[in-house]
Amino acid sequence: MSARNRVTPFSDIVAIALRGLFMGNRGCLHRDGDLVRHHSGKRWITCDTDFRDRKVEQWAQGRYTVLFFHDEAVALAAGHRPCAECRRPCYNAFREAWGGRPSADEMDARLHRERLGERPTADWSTLPHGAFVCVDALPMLVTQDSIVPWSVDGYGVPTPRPRTGQVTVLTPASTVAVLGAGYEPLLAI
After folding, report:
1. Judgement on whether residues 51 and 81 belong to the same structural domain of the protein
2. Does 4 have pLDDT greater than 70?
3. Helices H, strands E: what count in the chain?
4. CA–CA separation, 183 vs 82, rounded Å?
5. pLDDT for 77-91, tens place per residue?
6. What local confidence, expressed as pLDDT, does residue 1 receive?
7. Which residues pair with residue 146 across a beta bridge?
8. Cβ atoms within 10 A of the Cβ of 12, count?
9. Strand, helix or coil at 187?
10. What's the pLDDT at 167?
């Protein structure tokens, strides 16, 4: 049985077998190997799974809870951003696309407000490649010409992207703007 440490585009933490390209954290969320909270603090980061041969113990008491993401688009939709240490080039690119070279604290504070707020709607035509939306209660990855359903088994079969209408956006608004400014998330499709 898989541990409850995989993150969905809805930001839920679930127990599924789907492997992750990335790991990350939102602080210490566990006690005695069980999740007891959704997040702790505003710093939600996405890390490489292999960095300087570091080994991170899962469920270490008093340490951050290790989470896993299928790919970077899932992590971004859940409200995470690239780590400034292990993913420095991606962090710098994300920050540059954000505009104004904000500090990590500034980005984290804004993303946190957006994670806690209502999910906005947007016109299909305004959504950049790499954003996640919700269609019929299912998370869908937006690409240039298609939408791709995501499930606990990974990505499904793409369908043509609607050109008109409104859709609920899962990816925080600031991150949608970063994607629109040219940040390219690493995808597992």
Report:
1. yes
2. yes
3. 4, 15
4. 11
5. 999 999 999 999 999
6. 62
7. 160
8. 11
9. coil
10. 98
| Amino acid symbol at 23 | M
For residue 65, which of 94, 102, 23 has the smallest C-alpha distance?
Answer: 23
Range of the domain at 131: 121-180
Which tokens in the block code for residue 108? 């984290």
- Structure-block tokens of residue 187: 């995808």
Q: What is the pLDDT of residues 8-65, one digit of tens each?
A: 999 999 999 998 999 999 999 999 888 899 999 999 999 998 877 777 777 788 888 9
CA 143 – CA 158 distance, rounded (Å): 9
Beta bridge partners of 132: 141
Specify whether 23 is located in the same domain as 57. yes
Q: Please count the structural domains in the chain.
A: 2
CA distance 45 to 25: 6
Q: Are residues 126 and 112 in the same domain?
A: no
Contact between 176 and 131 under an 8 Å Cβ cutoff? The reply is yes
Considering the domain architecture, whether residues 112 and 126 belong to the same structural domain is answered as: no
